[in-house]
Amino acid sequence: MNFIKQNLLKILTQMFMILFSAFFLVPLLWMISTSLKSPEQLFTPEVQWIPNPIVFENYIRAIEYVNLFNAFKNTFFLCFLNVLGVVVASSLAAYAFAVLDWKYREYFFYITLATMMLPDMVTLVPQFILFQKLGMYGTLLPLTLPSMCGNAFYIFLLRQFFLTVPKDLREAACLDGCNEFDIYRKIYLPLSIPALSVVALFQFLFTWNDLLKPSIYLIDQNQYTLSLALQQFKAQHGGTEWALLMAAATMIVLPVIAIFFLAQKTFVQGISMTGIKE
Amino acid sequence: MAKLQIKNLSKTFGNSKILDSVDISVKDGEFIILVGPSGSGKSTILRLISGLDSPSSGNIYIDEKDVTTLLPKNRDIAMVFQNYALYPHMTIYENLAFPLKIKNIDKTIIESTVNEVSEMLGIKKYLSKKPKELSGGERQRVALGRAIIRKPKIFLMDEPLSNLDAKLRTQMRAELLRLHKSLSNTIIYVTHDQIEALTMGDRIVVLNQGKIQQIGTPQEVYNTPNNIFVASFIGSPSINLLDFKIIDLNNIVLNGKPFKFSTPQDTYSGLMSKYLINKDLILGARPENLNIKSTSSLMLSGKIELIEMLGNEYLLYVRLDDTFSKRSLISVRLHGHCSYLRGNEITLYLDVSSSHLFNSMDTQRITI
Q: Which of A175, A182, A278 sits opposite B50 (nearest CB)?
């Protein structure tokens, strides 16, 4: 009884969190359950969580129906370019805003921040016209070039992080013979791995889940990304193949979950700045 | 090893003048201490020498070459920071090797140099550790090592010992001196600790409010301070300052109290010729220049307010009586066994010939 009294708040918090996570988990579990059902089990009056029989073939059929492997390949390729591009470009810009001293730095920073206020939809049409006039419609370039120019939110995030790196380290590196790029690459980047991972993960998730831009810019089915491939389950077969759609969706979600678990530690990990005595 | 010359160096931030026409000339292999209270501009001088900041006017020469506009990395200068500034993501080995790696020096040479330096500083067993696993003293050694390893022309040290505890500080002080002896590098060392200044430097530069107050050996600065600031900044406890006025050959006023000399002393006949009669002067007497035995006719009496035991000697803080002056609390350094108690009345004798005289208007020293 005493134990409960002492830990009442803890227990209540835990219970609330379990309830909340269940709230998010139910659709996910339902998706997995559906992906293993035969067409007859799909629509039954009573809720059936564990299918009987379990139909694993749905997964193989799903892969074959829309060339899911190709979509995986395309999406990974896009994710790779986008993540690399956005991390390099945003961190360089953030370094310039946080560390380098130049005239009008603050003004340019505010202008960069202001672009965050523009909704994507506002720039969608002008951007489309721009890429079309540049002859990039139907290629992967409109899906990769923008992120290679950085992103205001990530620049802001990294700038704030860079500002916490003690100035003495930069000055020590300066005297040790580093040029500005050496300092960025050898001091600031390694110290900012937690922040860089957050940026990388966000960009990965965004690219992985993006449906709008691929559906606007891609024509060739061979270039389709996973989110576009999922759409095909609906269109191709008149009525929707729910079991196959859910099987494909499960496969698409798995890498994201895996990456999140792998990277979790890096996010939580704070920066260890103990070389500097505060 | 190198000569360093600073000519007419000034630095302003906005409207405030941080440094005002500073001239310093450092000899080859000299250990120079820049000392002063916070805000006196000593760290600014260091940053200007290193190239981390650029001066508003003036020039810096290393071995007769003007380096004022050179980038820090091209000046061949190493700096030890107050908070060590070790790279937290690198091991001690990588920290030490970093300046050499940047220069693209051969790997085997780097390895042997790191080994040699880490051996010299006694940090070889930490090479595979990260800075956060080391104590303050060990980190300080690594920071020193990173400076030494490049064999720079000049070392700059910005209060390198101020984060260490008292015992370690004394130890590191000795080690730094030993290091300086064996490497015979030119060292510019910034501190606000006058004990460090007096014990370590070949010469001391005393700074206040961006201006040089005095440059000299520790003895010169202690024994013949240029002005009241230097006199009171160097020496612990601080020099006692008393209001002083000469009426004539036999009569003076000290802290508002008249004194009569039975036998005029030579020092005073010297003072007469300086036309100092009836001028407001300040007399500076170090705590060791006051005595309890009768040595002169300048007799001061007061009440003991505080006693500080320092082992074989002790300090008395005495509040003088019969005085309207604000300078009525004086400190006295005495040797041997202390038989006084707080609140005791005491009579002190002031040794005038070893005291200093300052003009109370411009605070400058009056040479007799």
A: A175
